[in-house]
Amino acid sequence: MDRPKLRAGQSITPEQFEELSDEQLCRLVPRAYREYFPGKDFCADGHFYLHDGTAWSFFKGGFLDE
After folding, report:
1. For residue 28, how many other CB atoms are within 10 A of its CB?
2. b/e map 6-25, b = 16+ CB within 10 Å
3. Mean pLDDT, to the nearest integer, of 5-27?
4. The whole model's pTM is what?
5. What is the pLDDT of residue 51?
6. Residue 26 near residue 17 (C-beta atoms within 8 A)
7. Is 3 a residue whose pLDDT tops 70?
8. What pLDDT does 33 receive?
9. Is the pLDDT of residue 57 over 60?
10. Residue 5's Cα: distance from chain center in Å?
11. C-alpha–C-alpha distance, residues 40 and 48, integer Å
12. 63 pairs with which residues across the strands?
C-alpha cells in the first residue's frame, strides 16, 4: 500500500504518529521550526514546544492555540 507523501503542515492521526520515525515526523514540521523538534520520544500527546513557548501539534498540523 502506498503512503501519501509527508508534507510540512500535514496533520496526522495518533496511530500515524506512532508508526512514523523521527525523520518522517520532522518532515511534517515547517522548516522554520524543525530545529526545535526534540524527537518523537519527547513529544507529549503529539506536540512539542518551541523556544517562545508555543506548541506545534502533529495532530492539528499547526500550533495548538490556532
Report:
1. 21
2. eeeeeebeeebbeebeeeeb
3. 95
4. 0.88
5. 93
6. no
7. no
8. 96
9. yes
10. 14
11. 9
12. 56
Among residues 3, 51, 43, the alpha carbon closest in space to that of 26 is found at 43
User: Half-sphere exposure of 19 toward its Cβ, with a 13 Å CA cutoff?
Assistant: 7
One-letter identity of residue 23: E
Residue 5 in this model has a pLDDT that exceeds 90: no
State the cell numbers at 9.
503542515
∠ CA 43-63-31, nearest 5°, is 80
Grid coordinates belonging to 62: 499547526
> Phi and psi at residue 22, in whole multiples of 5°?
-55, -40
Query: DSSP readout, the chain?
Result: -PPPPP-TT----HHHHHHS-HHHHHTTS-GGGGGG---GGG-BTTEEE-TTS-EEETTTTEETT-
Please say if the pLDDT value at position 1 is more than 70: no
